[in-house]
Amino acid sequence: MDWFTAPDYWLSRLILQRALAGLYFVAFLAAALQFRALLGERGMLPVPRFVARVPFRRAPSLFQLHCSDRFFACCAWTGCAVAVALAAGLDSRLPLWGGMLLWLVPWLLYLSIVNVGQTWYGFGWESLLLEVGFLAVFLGNDEVAPPVVVLFLLRWILFRVEFGAGLIKMRGDACWRKLTCLDHHHETQPMPGPLSWWFHHLPRPLHRVEVAANHVTQLVVPFLLFTPQPIATTAAALMIVTQLWLVLSGNFAWLNWITMVLALSAVRLRGDPPALPDAPLWYEVLVLTVAALLLGLSHRPVRNLLSRRQIMNRSFDPLHLVNTYGAFGSVSRIRYEVVVEGTADDVPRGDSEWREYEFRGKPGDPRHWPRQFAPYHLRLDWMMWFAALSPAYAESWFGTLVERLLENDEATLGLLRRSPFPADAPPRYVRARLFRYRYTTWRELRATGACWERTFVREYLPPTRLIGVARPR
């Protein structure tokens, strides 16, 4: 079938696949390095406890069949190895069916992790990576040109990502309609980056331009993805530029990066395509069958997009095949942070020395400038941002976090930037306090060198011993 493939997109497919393999590697690396403290047998939300109460049909996962820290580590590091092999182009050296099976491996492994990841994996970019990763199985390799229908479905995902985010903003917070959200967003976003302070202090008229340009990119440009070339390429390029702007302004894990990867499905790059044979019949039948399935499942996200009660970042099936997306339907005006401290005193008193735990990414010491971590995802740091919004977000895991700090648990301390206590002398008590954070002004920055100024708000967790850990309030 001449209409089945698009040889002009072979270079775009090549870059898309290699970039997606790189994101797979980042995702598996984060899982390998963080799972023991978050999901391990002694983690804050242990996987064995989860699979004991949730049936396979609701959360299909390899860990429903066998669950141990060693097996989880094996799966995560295997995912890293396969991702490296895919980034190096091993799929192109295999037969078409072999390349497809190789792409299926990281999808199955990451699906297994996400489906038992609970709160730590409740982010929209987890489902997005799985949805894109599933389609990548059917993109083909050097034995066949990219199938038109798969390129269309990748653009369809990109459309839902961008248009869904645009609609949730217009329906959600009034500041998006008033073009004022960026007066606050760079300061209150979950994890600021090294340039976020500077973005916050841009002139307010420029913030209005940023918001207006965002609305155009998310509400108008997505429709141009389905137009003829070179309009579709121009639309994708505008989305890529917008995502690069967001990469500079904050740490959003791999959300921006995978959106740029998706945009490559609409980019027709110059270059003479190699002579590729016709696609085998079995491959055409398989791709068309999968496409029909995914289009049929798309009625749920379409209905959600059209609904006045639009929800964001929701999976409609346990395989995460077709999902709904969105981000920052509301923007906080004030930034709160939970500061965790410990003391070695046998009995905490008013003059006790409380030492602060330092996290890798979330604001803590006002003098510590934020660092760039994305596309790597610091899951505990992100959830600490939610915990500051409401203790309800932390109810299931914060108490265990405190217990592990009181034990000087090695895996948990590995999630932090620094512990104020030596390995052989854990704290006797741990407490948490809520602070209001704001960016310093230009004058304050020059005078103090601190990018943050913080003010005590209230006690978040009273001083707690290893016996009888309290709950945040």
Q: Strand order within the widest sheet?
A: 4-3-7-8
Ends apart, CA distance between termini: 63 Å
Q: Give me the count of strands.
A: 8
Mean pLDDT: 95
Low-confidence stretches: none
Beta fraction: 5-15%
- The amount of helix comes to 40-55%
**Main sheet attributes: strand count, strand direction, barrel closure:** 4 strands, antiparallel
Q: What does the radius of gyration come to?
A: 24 Å
Count of helical regions? 18
Based on Cα principal axes, name the global outline: globular
Structural category = alpha+beta
Q: Which series of helices and strands comes N to C?
A: HHHHHHHHHHHHHHEEEEEHHHEEHE
Task: Please explain how this structure is put together.
This protein is α+β, with helices and mostly antiparallel strands. Helix content is 47%, strand content 9%. The chain is built from 18 helices and 8 strands. The protein has helices at residues 10-38, 47-53, 69-87, 96-114, 124-136, 148-171, 174-177, 185-188, 196-200, 204-219, 231-249, 255-263, 281-297, 299-306, 379-389, 398-406, 410-413, 442-448; strands spanning 314-315, 323-324, 335-343, 355-356, 358-359, 416-418, 429-439, 452-464. Strands 4-3-7-8 form a 4-stranded antiparallel beta sheet. A two-stranded antiparallel ribbon has the order 1-2. Strands 5-6 form a two-stranded antiparallel ribbon. α1 (10-38) runs antiparallel to α3 (69-87) and α6 (148-171) crosses α10. The longest helix has 29 residues, at 10-38. The protein is globular and about 80 Å long. It starts with 9 loop residues before the first helix and ends in a 9-residue tail after the last strand.
